[in-house]
Amino acid sequence: MSEKTENTLSACPMPIGQYTQIVMAHGGGGRLMQQLLERLVRPAFANPHLDQRHDSTVFEVGGNRLAFTTDGYVVKPLFFPGGDIGKLAVCGTLNDLAMSGAKPLFLSAALVIEEGFPVNDLARVLASMNATAQAAGAAIVTGDTKVVENGKGDGLYIATSGIGLIEHGLQIAPAGIREGDAILLSGDIGRHGVAIIAEREGLGFETTVESDCADLSGLVGQLLRAGVELHCLRDLTRGGLAAAVLELAGDAGFDMELSESAIPVAAPVRSACEILGFDPLYVANEGRMVLFVPASAVGRALDVLHAHPLGHDACLIGRVGSVGKGKVSLRNPYDIVRVLDLPSGEQLPRIC
Amino acid sequence: MCLAVPGQILSIEQADDPLLRSGRVDFGGVVKVVNLAYVPEAEVGDYAIVHAGFAISRLDEAEARAVLKEIAALEDIADEIS
Amino acid sequence: MKYLDEYRDAASVKALADAIAGRQTRPWTLMEVCGGQTHSIVKHGLDRLLPPSLSLIHGPGCPVCVTPETIIDQALELAARPDVIFCSFGDMLRVPGSQHDLLTVKARGGDVRMVYSPLDALNLARENPERQVVFFAVGFETTAPTTAMAVLQAQRFGVRNFSLLVAHVRVPPAVETLLSAPDNRVNGLLAAGHVCAVMGYTEYEPIAARFRAPIVVTGFEPLDILSGVLNCVEQLEEGRAEVENRYGRAVTREGNRPAQALMDQVFEPVTLSWRGLDAIADSGLGLRPEFAEFDAVRRFELSAPGTASAGPCRSGDVLTGRLKPFECPAFGTACTPEHPLGATMVSSEGACAAYYRYRRDAA
């Protein structure tokens, strides 16, 4: 038996790094996760839709262009400053649709509940999901509920899927990125990651940092209505700003440069990062996006962003360079340029 | 490296046992309870370097100012030359 | 943040870099001892602001990197025990032993917890009286007093299910070893600011005199580091070899006396084999016999650490400054942060990891 297992393993396109088992870092938004997706997940399902390499896939049905996406949510704690797992799950799917410029229509929700989970907490989460979907003009129209044994889940896991309608003629996707495009950021970074870490046991932070968890579909709708020429959008999640830009640079095949001093980080987020030895560029967000627009559209895009509560700190953070291997450079305040790299997994608090 | 960051002492909890002397320390908006047994001289309002949950050194403001002043003097020299 | 932002000012950084270039007339090689300084230098690109004939060597100052493989194997053995909650600082979790790392033990069901402070581990012991809580005590003299405090509190409050796997290291014996090497190229040293905050710098005075090498106590921010470099270059140009303090806001000559006292009460110097280096007398800290009950090796009757296998990793040459990370044949190919051959690639403080992350284009 053990011999057979070993043979199976050696035939596998893994190991990823040295690991023959999944470790937490495989879900951390870093290089290990990218390797898992590229070497195991994508090949397993290979098809042209998957090759759009975007947050949602876009396809045509009866003359209408639709966007479709899905996501799973695990978060500890389930309730955190600025949100809860329900709001997170709905916002995440709304945002994945919005990144194609789609207007969200219908969502599904699958709940995996751990035996012993308080019904009151479940009611709170469901209410939060519904309110978030309604505010975006969408509805949760189908779902599933499963209960697992005590100890087999962290209280509650949620999976959501969504369908949205594309009512514009743009191709908002990695393939839309062009040389010379400006890279805009919709707000300050790192709030979600710090809010979550601060709440986790053991660290004992007292902070007022709230997660940035928010639905960006309204803001994207306003940009489209204002006629801003959007080439690509990407919401920032695990792996932070760095992972999002690196992924896009690789997928679109362009080198890019960011200016470190242009990237806004709120004071308490920066402080928490100093204490833990984190780089805010790699810390998770749940309500921020990067926008790729032609240089001529920067002024108009920033006007629309600044007028919206989710974009009032928006700024220009970099430019798309020439066709290349997807190298992302970061120019620091001392005018030194260094290469930005994917973290290998989740950042670990450092002692040294 | 011995990652350690400066923070300002907001309050001090005097314990019967000197090993348990602790306080709330503000790191630019993030507040944490920190063991202050190794900085018995530190008072509320002082800044301290904190490592692994312990204040290991009270920061000396005069020393800090002196070094920054020397560096500022270098900048002035540079300005004069250019 | 006060006491951080002022020390990152771009105009001042430029002025200091210019002052260094103006002061230097001959090539010099400096070593920053501390991994935190290495991280800061490479991240901010400070070495690129310096004249090419001034080279910086990245010393062995990352306690995570130098923790011997044999002790990591003991950690893995403890962490895999069902009765143990194994507590570690975050950056130790990825460091490979001879087989795998703590993250793998965790994935296989080991109860491995990341803690911010040794006191967090002690609290876990109090909250889980039916389990054994082991704290992986790594770090230089900066961290040793925090571990000493956890041991003293455990003793005072009778916490019987708490113990330590100790791998603390001391800086001065390692520095002496490096400077004594026949092929030593280091002309001056930047001493680790936070180690000195605890220990002061009297220990370095005989070393500076014996090896005729200036030693400058240096902090971690860009201005601190450049100011340390400037002082070191000035001393070398003037033919001086003294210990000077450029981190006066945090460091005094005597250091932190209360912290030293508790450290001495709990620990005694022992011989230790550093990863990548050979055994160095008095370079480690072990629990004194009065505190033997808190020694996890004893409590769990672990076998004494054997000798580590010599692999293809040349971290010893990197740690002693004989090799720049990108000069190693394995760098970035056989050896990456996901698949590290040695500890200098594992810890983000390690010289190889810092180069991989910030400077792959230099290779």
UniProtKB/TrEMBL annotation, chain B:
Gene3D superfamilies with a match to the protein in the record: 2.30.30.140
Highest rank taxon of the organism: Bacteria
GO function terms (MF aspect): carbon dioxide binding; iron ion binding
GO BP field: protein maturation
Similarity comment: family membership: Belongs to the HupF/HypC family.
PANTHER family, per database record: HYDROGENASE MATURATION FACTOR HYBG (PTHR35177:SF2)
Protein's name according to its UniProt entry: Hydrogenase assembly chaperone HypC/HupF
Organism: Methylocaldum marinum
TrEMBL record, chain C:
Keywords for the protein's UniProt record, in alphabetical order: Iron, Metal-binding
PANTHER family named among the record's database cross-references: HYDROGENASE MATURATION FACTOR HYPD, HYDROGENASE PROTEIN ASSEMBLY PROTEIN HYPD
Species of provenance: Methylocaldum marinum
Name of the protein this chain belongs to: Hydrogenase maturation factor
Transmembrane annotation, as ranges: none
Similarity field: Belongs to the HypD family.
Alphabetized GO MF terms: 4 iron, 4 sulfur cluster binding; carbon monoxide binding; iron ion binding
UniProt-listed GO biological process terms: protein maturation
